[in-house]
Amino acid sequence: MARLLLLCLLLFVGGQRSSACPNLCTCHGGQVDCSSRSLTSSSMPTGFPSGTTELRLQNNLLTTLPNGLLDDLTSLRSVSLHGNPWVCDCGVLYLRAWLRRQPASLTAHLGVNCSSPPSLRGRLVVYLTEEEVLESCQYWYCNLALVSLVCLFVFVAVQAVLLVALIVFLKRFERMSKEARRTTEESFTAGEGQRENDYERLMDSSI
Fold first, then answer.
1. Predicted model pTM
2. Which of 52, 111, 136, 197 stands the most exposed, by the fewest C-beta atoms within 10 Å?
3. 3-class SS at 128?
4. Omega before 117 cis (within 30°)?
5. By the 8 A CB rule, do 32 and 48 touch?
6. Residue 124 scores a pLDDT above 60
7. How many whole angstroms separate alpha carbon 57 and alpha carbon 38?
8. Residue 131: which of 96, 181, 180 has the closest Cα?
9. What is the model's pLDDT at position 102?
10. CATH assignment of 15-128, given 1.10.10.10, 3.60.21.10, 1.10.150.20, 3.80.10.10?
11. Residue 46: its pLDDT value, please?
12. Inter-CA distances, 76 with 53, 56, 71, 91, Å
């Protein structure tokens, strides 16, 4: 019984959440307006009401869309995505695939142009080939590899400096130890000689 009540509560909360208007957006019937709100890919809503028929996301700062964001909006008849600086690397694959699945009458792809990388700037996302997108991903991986290589070089250089400093310190310590040992031996030898002289003088005086 308790499990059944918990399941009903979760379904109720989920239904309430799916019908709620996202923060920073305004809703009127099936229209959800999130345009010109300076939304970024990290600050945009994680979901929209299931009954959304018109979605406006234009003129924001969106570079990608989270995977699966629009998949459950089966009632959509109009989507506005233009006026955003879309980055056409691996992160654009979901948006590209979603646009390709939409009927031409939806016209969601209009104005959805690449802002970067420079080689794809101005291109419509929906017409990008998979090879072009993957090629742009390789540049990102190359940059990451270059940064990793530089960090590795710096790490090795720091380790080499520390190793040289340790060797210098050990050699200096060894030299100081030898000098201290020699000084101790000289002091001991001098003390023995002094004691022998004192003993000889004592013997002479006793004779």
1. 0.57
2. 197
3. coil
4. yes
5. yes
6. yes
7. 10
8. 96
9. 85
10. 3.80.10.10
11. 87
12. 4, 11, 10, 23
- Which two structure tokens, joined as six digits, stand for 83? 């006026």
Tens of pLDDT along 58-117?
999 999 999 999 998 989 888 999 999 999 998 999 999 999 988 877 777 788 999 998
CA neighbor of 107 nearest in space, from 77, 131, 144: 77
Query: Which uninterrupted H or E stretch holds 162?
Result: helix 130-206
Alpha-carbon gap, residue 177 to 172, rounded angstroms: 9
- Strand, helix or coil at 101? helix
By the 10 Å C-beta count (0-12 exposed, 13-18 middle, 19+ buried), 121 is classed as: exposed
pLDDT band at 170 (very low <50, low <70, confident <90, very high): confident
Q: CA-CA distances (angstroms) from residue 72 to 48, 75, 89, 163? A: 9, 9, 24, 59
**Where along the chain do its domains lie?**
15-128
pLDDT at position 32: 95
| Distance between CA atoms of residues 41 and 95, nearest Å | 12
- Here the tokens at position 87 are 């980055």
Report the percent of the chain where pLDDT is more than 90. 35
Give the confidence band of 6 by pLDDT, cuts at 50, 70, 90.
very low
